[in-house]
Design a protein that fits this description.
Radius of gyration: 22 Å
Strand content: 15-25%
Strand order of the largest sheet: 1-4-5-13-14
Shape: globular
Number of strands: 14
Number of helices: 17
Helix content: 40-55%
CATH superfamily of the largest domain: Nucleoside phosphorylase/phosphoribosyltransferase catalytic domain
Length: 442
């Protein structure tokens, strides 16, 4: 096949055949399709899009560009969850142990944070000693032993995606919905799952800030995963303010521990229980999502979810004494409070500005090789809708960088808006998505 002809075909709005997509990915992985030809192909896809079939074929070719983990010898329906990321999103740390405690194997390959959003791997690696760079055999052994593993992708999993993402990152083609879907689903299906639940964030702190784009991505993800033969349901969830009370790696681990021990954080647990309950239904442990939610709540109350988290941390080399006694962890050298200047209510906490403030404090990275300080971050004492009096502490910033505290305090203070009137409550779960379409829940 002629790469120039394929570039022209997609540029002019044509559809690729499966054989053509196979040729593109196979030649790219074998270095027979150079970057200078792959780049215009990606740009043509960005502008012309891909059909449902093209996206499914691309996903399948990317999956088989490397190793596919076989978990067929492990009993049960293997179920995972994928989130498009947000600010303060530590749902995976709570959800995975809950679902595993209910008898569903949860194999989870996660990613790192970049720009204003956090990453599950960075949060896990804030636990002293914990390893996420597991070999395929260690990954299989961990899921077989305790029914739960949370690791990073290896070089043998979907190599086509890593190379394509690097090109997309420098050619302004990241936000192509078919390419996003193929990237996400290829990595998830290569980890050996049978079913998946998607959490697509929308709002100021989300990758897809507009509801319409989030809905389009959700539908594409669900359709592509279903085409690949996987059971799947998606949700569109709120991300206009940070999720939960903490932003920052170790701070979010502590909040996850508190939730696993039964502490109620309403917005965070609303999302966690909905996603986890759906995973139990897809995994055959519950007849409905509601029944799944109830089983998840019981796993918290009984302590089994927390025990499962401890076992996973220990299995992956982490020091569980820090999980049992989080107060042992070193604290940041400097902290400062942002206080309310009026009596009234919190009307807004800008999630995007919060995320960038956390990065400046040291909790995130703007470049892949930036160093992260696991102690840095923000703890919110009040959230949107909460009443405040003059002088009440709204949040506390933590960092080892004393020179940036005045600037970050000022930045975050501008992101918090107060009002004399209580703002309307915004439901966390905006819509459910299946192959029949997007079903608004509010």
């Amino acid at each position: 096949m002629n790469p120039g002809e394929l570039i022209r075909k997609k540029r002019d709005g044509g559809n690729f055949t499966r054989d053509e997509i196979h040729f593109i990915i196979d030649a790219f992985v074998r270095n027979e399709l150079p970057d200078y030809q792959m780049t215009p192909l990606l740009m043509a896809i960005y502008f012309q899009g891909l059909s449902v079939e093209e996206t499914a074929w691309l996903t399948d070719e990317m999956i088989h560009s490397g190793a596919v983990i076989d978990l067929s010898d492990i009993p049960g329906i293997k179920v995972d969850k994928h989130s498009t990321g947000g600010v303060g999103d530590k749902v995976s740390l709570i959800l995975a142990p809950i679902v595993a405690a209910c008898g569903i194997p949860v194999p989870m390959l996660s990613g790192r944070g970049l720009s204003h959003t956090g990453g599950t791997l960075d949060k896990l690696e804030s636990i002293p000693g914990l390893r996420t760079n597991l070999s395929v055999e260690e990954y299989r052994e961990t899921i077989r032993d305790i029914g739960l593993v949370m690791a990073g992708p290896t070089s043998v999993i979907v190599p086509a995606d890593k190379r394509m993402y690097s090109l997309r990152d420098v050619t302004a083609t990241i936000d192509s919905i078919p390419l996003i879907a193929a990237s996400i689903i290829s990595k998830k299906l290569a980890e050996g799952i049978d079913a998946i639940v998607f959490d697509i964030k929308t709002g100021r702190g989300a990758f897809m800030s507009s509801y319409e784009r989030a809905a389009e991505l959700a539908q594409t993800l669900v359709n592509t995963a279903t085409y690949a033969g996987k059971q799947t349901i998606g949700y569109i969830t709120e991300m206009n303010q940070p999720l939960g009370r903490t932003v920052g790696n170790w701070l979010e681990v502590v909040e996850a521990i508190q939730c696993l021990r039964g502490e109620e954080v309403p917005d965070l647990m609303a999302v966690t229980y909905q996603l986890a309950g759906t995973m139990l239904m897809l995994g055959g442990k519950a007849r409905s999502i509601e029944e799944g939610r109830e089983l998840c709540q019981k796993a918290i109350v009984s302590g089994e979810a927390f025990k499962k988290f401890l076992r996973m941390v220990e299995k992956q080399g982490g020091d569980i004494t820090f999980i049992e006694e989080p107060e042992k962890y070193p604290i940041a050298s400097y902290s400062v409070d942002i206080k309310s200047g009026m009596t009234g209510f919190i009307a807004k906490i800008d999630a995007l500005e919060t995320g960038f403030t956390a990065v400046e404090l040291g909790a995130g990275r703007m470049k892949v090789d930036d160093e992260i300080d696991p102690k840095a971050g923000i703890v919110f004492h009040r959230k949107v809708g909460d009443a405040v009096d003059i002088g009440d502490s709204v949040c506390t910033l933590y960092t080892d960088r004393s020179d940036i505290l005045p600037r970050t305090k000022s930045r975050l203070a501008r992101a918090i808006v107060f009002s004399s009137q209580r703002p309307p409550q915004v439901p966390m779960i905006r819509a459910m998505v299946d192959t029949a379409g997007v079903h608004p829940l509010v």
